[in-house]
Amino acid sequence: MVDNSCGTFLFNFYIKRGIGMNKKIVPFTEKQIRDMIKQYPTPFHIYDEKAIVQNVRKLIKAFAWAPSFKEYFAVKATPNPYIMRVLQNEGVGADCSSLAELILCEKVGITGKDIVFSSNDTPKIEYQKAMEMGALINLDDISMIAYLEEMGPLPDAICVRYNPGPLLQEGNAIIGKPEEAKYGLTREQIFAAFQELQQKGVSHFGLHTMVVSNELNVSGLIHTAKMMFELAVEVKEKLSIAVDFIDFGGGIGLPYRPEESFVDYDELSAGIKRYFEEIMRPHGLDKVKLAFECGRAITGPYGYLVTTAIHHKHIWKEYIGVDACMANLMRPGMYGAYHHITVLGKETQPLDHVYDVTGSLCENCDKFAIDRALPKIDEGDILVIHDTGAHGHSMGFNYNGKLRSAELLWHEDGTVTCIRRAETVDDLFATLDFSQL
Ligand SMILES: *Cc1c(COP(=O)(O)O)cnc(C)c1O
């Protein structure tokens, strides 16, 4: 077995210095993982608590200059109460878009203005719950004003989501062109909505947008902030409304590929600060609270899907079959997304085999990697699939009767907590009543 302590040292070395490296090092040793597997059979997702905490602290510190800066963690990325509690302890709020996510927040003790409710196509019951909890509601359409009023008096503060459409030059692959995205209000609608809300007694206003997803280009992220600052100024000039709150949404990217680099929070912050000083301050908008709703960037890099190679198949191509499948991680099958793979104990071996790494679904897209150069893999080898800490377990599903895995939390002292047990067949059948058969 290869001793990974050097890798761990390098990992800590770079993380501590905040260098935007991306070496795809696994922070635990093969022995540690094999010990865990005795108690928690593969597949499972494991999250590195310390790395998550250090990362979110770094983000918050980078924006220390911004008035009441707040990160609202996008719950959908990793809807686990233990992860939410870790983040809550760091002063992070929650971004929800469904009833279950609101209830999860309630159970963790995240309520009121620590929640932004950024939903779309929203059922009444969800708005009711959000209002009951005192969450800051972010409207996805102008028609939602009347819809919300049917449930009682409008809250004192309301946020609206902006879709710049063709006014934004740069789109990107996951959300695509804003004019083809279902979210938000047009520019004219933003003004009409604020006017209507003001007439109806709302006194605090927020602006929200999310036009990028998995964006690694800092200038693209800074550009979004500039666009929002200009909109806030125009709102002030045209309507005499000074917004209280600007939320840039999520979308900070994750360097899934080893050759990509982490977004430098300090660079991002400096770029946003420059436009804040230039655009907002001269218009007396220097008290506006700034926020992000990042999910992926917060937990994504610090989660790992651990799976065992169970089959090797040689036909027209070489296949390694593992005990995880697309039910545990959709991104490769759904988006063709790259997720780095480390074969534990073989970190230093040559990448002289080319494999498709597959799951067991009766779907040919159920592959974690296609034509990937890897060391020779034997049955029983443990594969660590990187960057599964966000939009990993949470996107899981039960097609083909596949069960969703456990989630483990890896603490700084080397101990592990099972923060969600693996599903059983009984869980899968819980909604069936066989007695009526
Ligand atoms: C999905 C989503 C987020 C989080 O996106 P990440 O890519 O995880 O940062 C934030 N806000 C809204 C409204 C979303 O839909």
Automatic annotation (TrEMBL):
Cofactor(s) listed: pyridoxal 5'-phosphate
Pfam families: Orn_Arg_deC_N
Record InterPro entries: Ala_racemase/Decarboxylase_C, DAP_deCOOHase_LysA, De-COase2_N, Orn/DAP/Arg_de-COase, PLP-binding_barrel
Keywords: Decarboxylase, Lyase, Pyridoxal phosphate
Gene3D superfamilies: Alanine racemase, Lyase, Ornithine Decarboxylase, Chain A, domain 1
GO terms of biological process kind: lysine biosynthetic process via diaminopimelate
Active site residues of this protein: 362 (proton donor)
Ranges of residues in domain Orn/DAP/Arg decarboxylase 2 N-terminal: 52-299
Organism (species): Megasphaera hutchinsoni
Molecular function GO terms recorded: diaminopimelate decarboxylase activity
Record protein name field: Putative diaminopimelate decarboxylase
PTM sites of type N6-(pyridoxal phosphate)lysine: 76
